[in-house]
Design brief:
Elements (H helix, E strand, L loop, with lengths): L2 E5 L3 H13 L3 E5 L4 E3 L4 H6 L8 E3 L6 E4 L3 E5 L2 E4 L4 E3 L2 E4 L3 E4 L7 H13 L2 E6 L8 H11 L4 E6 L10 H10 L2 E4 L10 E5 L2 E4 L20 E3 L2 H6 L6 H21 L10 H4 L1 H14 L3 H15 L4
Parallel strand pairs: 1-2, 1-9, 2-5, 9-16, 11-12, 11-14, 12-13
Antiparallel strand pairs: 3-4, 6-7, 7-8, 10-15
This protein binds flavin-adenine dinucleotide.
Length: 316
């Protein structure tokens, strides 16, 4: 049986394993330094009170079809990764999904960090997000909307101190949409910080160190190394795309199709979704504007969460 090594048990790694095992038989090893999978896309739901923070955590010991290698990958060597224990894990295929490297201390990208930040937010009279980065860690907008919905008396604002020229067109529709939710979006810096205010400097994302030196083909996500793939936030960043979870799901699906077809039929056969940006730039821009200014509604996340818990994670 072919062995597939997956590095990183986040959104991309878990969805990849699910799609692969739906399509073919394979031995799947998951290298993940945490004992759990965290459904980070769902964190804003916990701010909004739709789930508890602990509901977003899934123990990896529950997996029956995937073997958890509880360690950090420190270096890539062909289709092997060296672990921090200095052992190596090798496979017929290597799928790297280590997420992105985050620069900053406002740790709302982990369930534990988010819960701590939520404790601070609950006590603050005003919560202000300050964005001064081209590629910020996603989710601050959804958190801002969730906090305002749950605590309508709080002042919640987003200060876009830096917006690149490419995204200037989003500013006015974003301001208008946020206003409907009671959240102020502005290009001005935040006012002087009063003692009962929380100012959150939104962290930045960069490709993970494991992805350094990797080139990838946008159509297949294969790197310059045969049967070594890169998916998730780092792959999106390397392709110049925003590091969002929907992009990770799309990439995980493509690579699962590629590997499954090669294992079962001997050749790569994929049918990626067509990007409407390639065929109709105007309608894509309208869609992008809508998506970016509304954020992902919590009710959509709740639906995705239920599918994730009942179908995706439990099948592994
Ligand atoms: C609060 C919040 C809300 C968000 N909301 C949305 C949303 O509504 N819609 C949307 O599309 N996107 C959203 N995003 C973005 C989305 O969550 C990310 O794009 C997505 O999680 C990226 O998936 P990933 O698997 O690449 O990385 P991650 O989910 O970060 O997973 C990476 C995994 O790799 C592991 N890892 C790291 N280093 C190593 C190593 N050396 N060896 C082995 N494993 C390693 C980590 O422990 C982790 O488990 C949100 C993000 C946040 C923080």
């Amino acid at each position: 049986m072919r062995r597939v090594v997956v590095v990183g048990g986040g959104i991309a790694g878990i969805y990849f394993a699910y799609r692969l095992l739906q399509a073919t038989e394979a031995e799947v090893l998951l290298v993940e330094p945490k004992p759990v999978h965290e459904f980070v896309i769902g964190i804003p739901m916990a701010y909004g009170g739709l789930v508890d923070f602990k509901d977003l955590i899934f123990p990896l010991t529950q997996m029956r079809r995937v073997k958890h290698v509880w360690d950090h990958a420190v270096a890539l060597d062909g289709r092997c990764v060296r672990l921090s224990s200095s052992q190596s894990v090798c496979g017929d295929y290597m799928v790297l999904a280590p997420g992105s490297y985050k620069l900053g201390t406002a740790e709302y990208w982990s369930v534990e960090g988010s819960e701590k930040l939520y404790g601070l937010m609950k006590r603050a009279k005003a919560v202000r997000f300050v964005v001064s980065e081209f590629t910020p860690v996603m989710g601050f907008q959804e958190i801002a909307y969730a906090v305002k919905t749950r605590f309508p008396d709080k002042e919640v604002s987003i200060h876009l101190v830096y917006v690149s020229d490419d995204y200037q067109f989003l500013l006015e529709p974003w301001k208008a949409k946020a206003k409907e939710a009671g959240v102020e979006v502005t290009g001005d810096p935040p006012p002087h910080k009063a003692v009962d205010e929380l100012h959150i400097s939104v962290p930045a994302v960069r490709p993970h160190p494991l992805a350094a030196g990797l080139d990838l083909r946008p159509e297949t996500l294969e790197t310059q190394y045969d049967r070594v793939y890169l998916i998730g936030d780092s792959a999106l960043l390397k392709l110049g795309l925003p590091p969002i979870g929907w992009g990770s799901l799309w990439q995980a699906s493509i690579v699962a199709q590629a590997i499954a077809s090669e294992i079962s039929r001997g050749y790569i056969d994929i049918s990626p979704d067509e990007w409407s940006s390639q065929t109709d730039a105007d309608s894509f821009k309208r869609w992008l504007t809508y998506r970016m200014v509304t954020g992902t509604p919590l009710v959509h996340l709740k639906g995705l969460y239920q599918i994730w818990a009942r179908n995706v994670v439990s099948s592994l």
